[in-house]
Every structure is written in structure tokens, then in C-alpha cells.
Design a protein that fits this description.
It is a single chain. The chain is an alpha+beta fold. Helix 1 packs across helix 3 and helix 5 crosses helix 6 (142-150). The longest helix has 16 residues, at 111-126. It is built from six helices and seven strands, in the order E-H-H-H-E-E-H-E-H-E-H-E-E. The two termini are 27 Å apart. It has one domain: Aminopeptidase (3-Layer(aba) Sandwich).
């Protein structure tokens, strides 16, 4: 059994760790992110500084940083989610999440499903008006959409969206989790 998970907001001191994780093959395969200092600063510091509406978190397992998760309200980034909004019904206040296990030794032990399960509870607590969490995933990323399914998400659509990775054909599956009654 894995130790307790924790989620803490990212800090400037985390940028180097995020950069390192983004360079690991298992992360780079689906994130395909520019890992230069300037790009990591540009894309992750806004959450820290409060200049972006996204909220980024370091995932800790037993107090050790093992991964990353971010969330945002989909309609806060309409240009970034145009294809998703055209593909599925996105109610006002709906969230999306994106995540990765950064530490290679932690991959393949069920941590992804657990991360998602526990993080959605944090989302419901912190965003009381959010009716749902909607997550598009590259169809080829079986581990990711399998983790969503294991965490209680339901597949609601499939379609083409601009891929994050040049290795992908753009086919995505979309999963949704409704806010439970009383959450």
C-alpha cells in the first residue's frame, strides 16, 4: 500500500522539478512540452504568481514529491478548449484536470487512479459550484484514460482534437465525472 497522498500548490522552487519530470520519456511522450527554462517559467509560473486562472499542484506521496496535477475551469480558457467545447456539452463552471506521475519508479503501481480519485475530492471541496470535471485524453494514452475510468469517470465522447504530441494522430477520448450529491 502506498503512503498517503498530498496536494500542495506549486512554488517557484518546484519549477526545476517540473522541468526534470517533463524530460522523462514517460511524461514527454504525452506532454511534449518545451523544457527550456523560459518555457517552464512561461507555462507554470503563472499559477504561482496568480496571473493565470489555472491551479497547479505538486503531488506528494508520503511527503515526497512524485507528480504534478493542474486544474482549471474550462471556460477560463475558451481558445485552448474550443475543440472540446464543440465536441461535448461543457456547463459553466466545469473543470478539467491534467496530471502526470513524474517519478519513473512510481509508474505502474496504481498511483494515477488514486491521484485522480483523491484530487477530484479536492476539486469538489475547493470549487463548490463546479458541476463536473471533463478530461480529454489522447486515445493512445491507455494508462491515462484507464486511470480516469478506475477513478469513476465515464467516457462520454471521442473525436479529433489538436494533439499535444506530434506522435499522436489527434484522436481523443473524453471522460466526465459528475459532482456527487452532497459534495
Amino acid at each position: 500500500m502506498l503512503p498517503e497522498l498530498g496536494f500542495r500548490r506549486t512554488r517557484r522552487g518546484d519549477l526545476q522539478q517540473i522541468q526534470e519530470w517533463l524530460r522523462h520519456e514517460h511524461v514527454a511522450r504525452y506532454w511534449a512540452h518545451d523544457t527550456s527554462d523560459a518555457a517552464v517559467e512561461r507555462d507554470f509560473a503563472g499559477s504561482i504568481d496568480g496571473t493565470e486562472p489555472s491551479e497547479d499542484f505538486i503531488v506528494e506521496c508520503g511527503g515526497t514529491a512524485v507528480g504534478f496535477v493542474q486544474r482549471c475551469r474550462i471556460h477560463d480558457y475558451p481558445d485552448g478548449f474550443t475543440e472540446l467545447i464543440e465536441l461535448v456539452d461543457v456547463p459553466p463552471g466545469a473543470l478539467t484536470i491534467d496530471y502526470f506521475i513524474g517519478e519513473p519508479a512510481m509508474v505502474g503501481h496504481g498511483l494515477g487512479s488514486r491521484l485522480i480519485q483523491e484530487f477530484i475530492e479536492v476539486c469538489w471541496r475547493d470549487h463548490a459550484q463546479a458541476p463536473a470535471i471533463i478530461v480529454p485524453v489522447s486515445e493512445s494514452n491507455v494508462a491515462s484514460w484507464g486511470a480516469l475510468r478506475s477513478a469513476g469517470f465515464t467516457r462520454i465522447a471521442a473525436g479529433h482534437m489538436e494533439p499535444d504530441s506530434p506522435l499522436d494522430d489527434g484522436q481523443h477520448v473524453v471522460y466526465r465525472c459528475e459532482r456527487p450529491a452532497g459534495a
